[in-house]
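User: What would this chain look like folded?
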Amino acid sequence: TRFVHSGLLMSSGFPKFKLPSGQMKENGPRIRQLLLYMLILLLGGTLYAWSVFCEPLAANLSVLTGRPVTSSSLSLAFSLSFVGSPAGMMLAGAVHRRAGLRAGIAAGSVMFMIGMAGTAFSPRPWLLILFYGIFFGIGSGMIFCSALAGAVALFPGHRGVAGGLASMSWGLSSMLYAPLASALVQAVGIT
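Assistant: Here's the prediction, encoded as structure tokens.
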């Protein structure tokens, strides 16, 4: 069973792009831009690697504060990051309307970096919760929304494929970063 539907060749239920000759050359810049958005999302999706950092952060904070800090007492940071992420997505929409997608990615990246740096150097649990839960969460949401909107806009005829590839990069990041971060924490510690 084969049929062509809006430039998409379907064979045995698996879609393959069928581009007319010369069209690949035209699409080259858009494909490169999509790959950049995918890279941005791959780097920004570290939100889901929390479980790798939680125990070492709790142990480090126990030493710094002189009181026992458990990973469950830090779970509020991860929960807040999932409140901050949709808030960042809504904020990104406002930034897009005023200044464009690049500004959304830049603003999200700044929030993301503030959150990561603040988390890394937090001497108190409440600061870690603030930086990871709020700054990191909002930054992640802004990055996700901005890069996903950019990827989808590049291919109006194949928005689902572009959005799916971009979202896949976001999800792949935790799969790639978790073992890497775990190895780094074991090798050099959390600080």
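The longest strand covers residues 2-5. If you want, I can go into more detail on any region.
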